[in-house]
């Protein structure tokens, strides 16, 4: 495998805010690489620098052998972008959007028409090609948004949280299409704050938080960082005090970490079964009703929890 | 270059699919023109020019040839379609009728007018020229403006004849072809000939200036229609500016910036789209005015070049507003305010020539003012060659504003790097 992207000490400062604090990583041709992190971690800023939209404050990167600093036009030919927001013209049809963006990537004539037809087929919207984007559902818009990124057959596709705000069915379709694109040989840089997506798609994952890459490796390599620990997820009612329960659970012998999110309390322990009874007892003593309990094997969520002391959705 | 064109065409397509924008660009100026047509009485007479005759009073206290010539001009057959002239003798009564809104204007030719232009005794020192008064009705700006234009053109011809006569007589005297004693009789003869000449050749405002062209009636609707079109042109350019900031907010502008397209191409393409939209709007309004109202816009080439220049200047304003604002909402709000201000200031509602000097001076910052000057010139029979001042004014305005906009865009780029 060859390296298609190499980022070195990328830093981005917006006014007084240091959004990205010296990130370095590389992506091998043919892999799916995920940047996993909560909202505001610096994922989009990193992609914006790599796609030549932002100039790094310091640091550098090469993509397909071209520097993002000195050869931005060459870099843009190598990459395809699927931005987080739906960046399409609502008053134009799906086909008109694809034709326009194809022209912006230098396609024209019969080649453009053929490629637009292919992409429409690929995103499953051949029948709705003439429909205006404003009449489409959120999922359909997302698919066209992805289609635009595929038009010029980029060697490296940047997908910035492409499943935000869509229904489970569309989300499933997008994840399947990412895997299919990768199977066809496309390298993908995928950003998400959904642990499950990173786990399902990625060959390697970079975990990013507060502008820093805090962990990098395959899923197996990352989960080894939390050892053999298991995670106990307690689902509690909306009105219950999850924070107080988490505080109480930390005092139970064998509990390594306990954190509260919306209606959940996550507890990390070497053996979940060993702490199950005292956890339930504590909840009962505080009058907190537990709706259900999940026991999870070591995963990326646990890694993030282990590294930051916070859940991904915090 | 090709991408620049494609971006512009895409924007043109988007605007023409936006019903709200179309309403303001095309329907609103049309309806306002029609409404103003009714208000100013431009419908209903059924005469050749499609407008009511303009009622005017002529008070001729001058006993000379020129005063008579002007009075006769207004009573002539040539002007019968355009003006309804009544001769009265009392200037105070004439002014009272204007004040009472009975007529559009009163022309008061004072005693001694002819003698002040062509002195009976050429050897006597020249006195002050006695001025003709055009007492205008401010509630009938179009009608009174037409009357003033006719009088001004008459005076312009008289002045040209006077200077020419003086030169000829001086040269004849110097060359010894006439004696000083013969000068007096020649002056009287010249005055009579001049009066006959200006009578025989109606004012420019009523006739195409080029020999051989058909006579062309001035239609006040041809003043109101471009006035409205130019006012709503300001909407179009500010709406175009708004679309640039909207594209930034929607993410399509950043997406363009990460495609293999130069940033300058993207921006110029966007501005080209605004320009193209403005030109299309003006062409449609001019075309519709011709077809639906039978408006005579004048020399087609002049109209086309004037439109290109007016849209260039207006686009400059649109870009400057965009460069100075942060959100699409701000552009829309400021754009609407400027559209109305420029409409009032630039003469879309009131004739600038009847306003104070400072107002006329200030109106020159608007594309409306220059554009209306141009359309009026063309409507009165002028051609491309007569548009020097409006075209220069619009070109300078567009260039200066574009440079300012570029400077502001450089200081605060559309997409932060």
What does this structure look like?
The complex is a heterodimer of chains A (314) and B (417). Chain A has 314 residues and is α/β, with parallel strands linked by helices. Chain A is 36% helix and 29% strand. The longest helix of chain A has 16 residues. Chain B is 64% helix and 5% strand. In chain B, strand 1, helix 3 and strand 2 form a beta-alpha-beta unit. Chains A and B meet through helix 2 and helix 3 of A and helix 1 and helix 9 of B.
Summarize this entry quickly:
The complex is a heterodimer of chains A (314) and B (417). Chain A is α/β, with parallel strands linked by helices.
Poorly predicted parts of chain B: 44-51, 201-216
**Widest beta sheet: strand line-up of chain B:** 2-1-3-4
Average residue-wise pLDDT of chain A: 89
Integer-rounded radius of gyration of chain A: 22 Å
Helix-residue proportion of chain B: 55-70%
Question: Termini separation of chain B (Å)?
Answer: 24 Å
Q: What is the spatial order of strands in the main beta sheet of chain A?
A: 6-7-8-3-9-10
- Find the structural class of chain A using helix and strand composition: alpha/beta
């Amino acid at each position: 495998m060859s390296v298609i992207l190499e980022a070195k000490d990328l830093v981005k400062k917006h006014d007084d805010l240091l959004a990205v604090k010296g990130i370095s990583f590389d992506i091998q041709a043919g892999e799916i690489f995920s940047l996993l992190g909560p909202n505001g971690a610096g994922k989009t800023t990193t992609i914006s620098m790599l796609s030549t939209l932002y100039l790094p404050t310091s640091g550098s990167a090469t993509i397909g052998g071209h520097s993002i600093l000195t050869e931005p036009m060459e870099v843009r030919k190598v990459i395809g972008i699927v931005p987080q927001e739906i960046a399409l013209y609502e008053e134009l049809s799906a086909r008109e959007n694809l034709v326009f963006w194809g022209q912006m990537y230098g396609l024209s004539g019969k080649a453009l028409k053929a490629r637009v037809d292919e992409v429409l087929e690929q995103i499953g919207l051949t029948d709705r090609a003439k429909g205006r984007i404003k009449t489409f559902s959120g999922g359909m818009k997302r698919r066209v948004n992805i289609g635009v990124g595929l038009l010029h057959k980029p060697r490296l596709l940047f997908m910035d949280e492409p499943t935000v705000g869509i229904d489970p069915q569309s989300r499933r379709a997008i994840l399947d299409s990412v895997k299919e694109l990768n199977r066809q040989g496309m390298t993908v840089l995928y950003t998400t704050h959904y642990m499950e997506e990173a786990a399902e798609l990625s060959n390697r994952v970079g975990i990013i938080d507060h502008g820093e890459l805090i962990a990098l490796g395959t899923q197996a390599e990352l989960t080894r960082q939390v050892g053999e620990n298991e995670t106990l997820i307690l689902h509690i009612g909306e009105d219950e005090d999850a924070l107080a329960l988490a505080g109480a659970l930390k005092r139970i012998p064998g509990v390594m970490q306990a954190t509260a999110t919306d209606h959940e309390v996550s507890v990390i322990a070497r053996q979940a079964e060993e702490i199950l009874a005292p956890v339930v007892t504590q909840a009962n003593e505080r009058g907190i009703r537990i709706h259900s309990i999940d026991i999870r094997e070591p995963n990326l969520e646990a890694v993030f929890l282990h590294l930051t002391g916070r859940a991904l959705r915090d | 270059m090709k991408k620049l064109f494609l971006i512009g065409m895409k924007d043109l397509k988007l605007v023409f699919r936006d019903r709200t924008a179309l309403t303001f660009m095309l329907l609103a100026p049309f309806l306002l023109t029609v409404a103003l047509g009714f208000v100013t009485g431009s419908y209903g007479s059924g005469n050749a020019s499609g407008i009511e005759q303009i009622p005017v009073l002529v008070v001729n206290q001058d006993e000379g040839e020129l005063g008579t010539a002007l009075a006769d001009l207004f009573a002539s057959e040539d002007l019968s379609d355009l003006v309804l002239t009544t001769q009265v003798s009392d200037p105070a009564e004439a002014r009272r009728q204007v004040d009472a809104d009975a007529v559009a204007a009163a022309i008061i030719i004072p005693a001694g007018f002819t003698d002040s232009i062509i002195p009976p005794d050429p050897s006597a020192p020249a006195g002050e020229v006695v001025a003709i008064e055009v007492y205008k009705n401010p509630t009938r700006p179009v009608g009174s403006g037409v009357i003033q234009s006719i009088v001004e053109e008459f005076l312009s011809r008289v002045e040209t004849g006077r200077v020419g006569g003086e030169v000829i007589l001086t040269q004849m005297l110097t060359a010894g072809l006439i004696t000083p004693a013969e000068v007096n009789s020649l002056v009287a003869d010249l005055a009579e000939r001049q009066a006959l000449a200006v009578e025989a050749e109606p004012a420019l405002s009523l006739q195409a200036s080029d020999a051989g062209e058909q006579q062309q009636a001035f239609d006040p609707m041809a003043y109101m229609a471009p006035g409205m079109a130019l006012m709503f042109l300001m909407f179009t350019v500010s709406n175009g500016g708004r679309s640039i900031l909207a594209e930034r907010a929607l993410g399509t502008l950043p997406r363009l910036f990460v495609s293999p397209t130069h940033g300058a191409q993207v921006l110029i393409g966007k501005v080209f789209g605004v320009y193209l939209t403005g030109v299309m709007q003006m062409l449609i309004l001019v075309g519709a005015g011709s077809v639906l109202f039978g408006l005579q816009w004048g020399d087609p080439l002049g109209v086309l070049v004037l439109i290109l220049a007016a849209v260039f200047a207006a686009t400059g304003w649109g870009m400057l507003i965009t460069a100075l604002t942060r959100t699409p909402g701000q552009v829309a709000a400021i754009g609407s305010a400027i559209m109305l201000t420029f409409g009032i200031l630039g003469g879309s509602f009131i004739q600038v020539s009847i306003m104070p000097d400072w107002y006329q001076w200030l109106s020159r910052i608007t594309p409306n003012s220059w554009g209306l000057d141009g359309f009026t010139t063309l409507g009165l029979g002028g051609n491309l060659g007569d548009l020097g001042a409006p075209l220069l004014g619009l070109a300078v305005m567009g260039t200066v504003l574009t440079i300012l906009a570029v400077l502001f865009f450089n200081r605060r780029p559309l997409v932060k790097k």
